[in-house]
Design goal:
The protein is of the alpha+beta class and about 140 residues long. It is built from four helices and four strands, in the order H-H-E-E-H-H-E-E. A hairpin with a 5-residue loop joins strand 1 and strand 2.
Length: about 140
């Protein structure tokens, strides 16, 4: 339960950044601190590298956040941009891996972690950015 609480606190604290949340050091079963998973640090660096490109594509209305905690193209014609498609594919691949890592650490499931991140991304989205509803419809945030 402590681990889940720690993750939820980090999700709330992470709401000030546009990057997916990476849980920092977690207490181990003996009450001490264990080191951060080095793969999470690598993923965080990769998220930072893509942040500008993703932010620009969101502002241009080309991509948006989904209820699955991923990014997707608002219109199929935007998929023709090979560079942006690569950025989106890499982002989603890394998000899925991060959700797996956090789920293992917390004893949850990747789907629950992804849904929590999706809710945070929806709350943090800026006016004009697109959000995909559970029914698959794209809506612009007001």
């Amino acid at each position: 339960m402590k681990r889940i609480t720690s993750i939820l606190i980090l999700l709330v604290l992470g709401a000030t950044t546009a990057l997916p949340v990476v849980a920092l050091a977690q207490p181990d079963d003996r009450g001490g601190e264990k080191r951060e998973n080095p793969r999470k640090a690598e993923l965080q660096a990769r998220f930072r590298e893509r942040d500008a490109a993703l932010g620009a594509a969101k502002r241009e209305g080309k991509i948006g956040e989904t209820t699955e905690g991923l990014v997707d193209f608002v219109k199929s014609e935007f998929r023709d941009d090979a560079k942006l498609r690569r950025v989106v594919d890499d982002e989603n691949k890394d998000r899925r891996e991060l959700y797996e890592i956090i789920a293992k650490e917390t004893g949850g499931t990747p789907d629950v972690v992804a849904e929590q991140n999706a809710r945070r991304n929806y709350q943090r989205a800026r006016a004009g950015e697109y959000l995909k509803t559970a029914t698959g419809e794209w809506r612009q945030k007001k």
